[in-house]
Structure formats: C-alpha cells, structure tokens
Amino acid sequence: MPTDSLFHPLVQAGASGAATVAVTLNGQPLQVPVGSSVAAALLAGGIKRFRNSPVSGEARAPYCMMGVCFDCLLEIDGVPNRQGCLVPLEAGMAIRTQDGMRDLLAEARDPAVALAQAMEAPDGV
C-alpha cells in the first residue's frame, strides 16, 4: 500500500545556501546535502526506495535511522549490505540499491575464497 513519504527535508537540496555533494545512485549522478549519513542525505535528496525485501519484494526505506532495523541496506562503494544510516556521507560515493537477497557466492570471482571470507568476517558481509 503506497503512502506519501514521512520524510521532508528542512532545506531543499540544491537550494541557495544549502551545501551539497555529488554521489552516484545506481550509476546516476545525484546532488545530496552534506554533513549527514548516507541514508539521511538520500532521503533529503528525494530517494524513497533503498532496497527490496527478499521475502515479499516490497520496497523498503530507512525506518529507525540508528542501525537497528536494517531497512537502509545499500551497496556503498562496492561493499554490499552497508547500513546507510550508519555510514557518513562522502563526496564521490558510488551507491547502489539492493534488490532482494545478495548471492555473494554467485557474484564472487572465486566462490571458495568468498565463502571463507564470509565465515571469518567479524561483522558478517
């Protein structure tokens, strides 16, 4: 059931006096406000979908903005499953939305190495 976004920027991105930075989202250039997390900047830039649920396929967007709900998962600079609400925004970031569950083994050049890294990663992958 679609609803209007509950997030409204206090200052519109690109408005006079509002400092912005260039990032890419799914390969498209985007100007977003500086000085916040990736998730806050994307919301302020008008982005409403960050990922699709692997269960239902429904669009998901940040909910808690403090790292608890995992609805803000994005691929940031080639690293999947990053919580956008916890990552400080930097100029030139390459950000991609995530669709469904990631298949890290299928994406890896060497599945055996990817599996070993996933098992040894302290915070998961």
Task: Characterize the structure shown.
The termini are far apart. Strands 1, 2, 3, 4, 5, 6 and 7 form a seven-stranded mixed sheet that branches. The chain is 17% helix and 25% strand. The longest helix is centred in the last third of the chain and has 10 residues, at 111-120. With 125 residues, the chain is an alpha/beta fold.
Largest sheet: 7 strands, mixed
Amino-to-carboxy terminus distance:
31 Å
Low-confidence stretches: none
Number of DSSP strand runs: 7
Summarize the helix and strand pattern as letters.
Answer: EEHEEEEEHH
What does the overall shape look like? globular
Give the helix proportion (percent range): 10-25%
| Tally of helical runs | 3
Summed over residues and divided by their number, the pLDDT gives a mean of: 81
**Radius of gyration from CA coordinates:** 16 Å
Structural class: alpha/beta
Strand content: 15-25%
Quaternary arrangement of the chains shown?
single chain
List the keywords:
25% strand, 125 residues, 3 helices, 7-stranded mixed β-sheet, alpha/beta
Short description:
This protein has 125 residues and is an alpha/beta fold. It has 3 helices and 7 strands; from the N terminus they run E-E-H-E-E-E-E-E-H-H. Strands 1, 2, 3, 4, 5, 6 and 7 form a 7-stranded mixed sheet that branches.
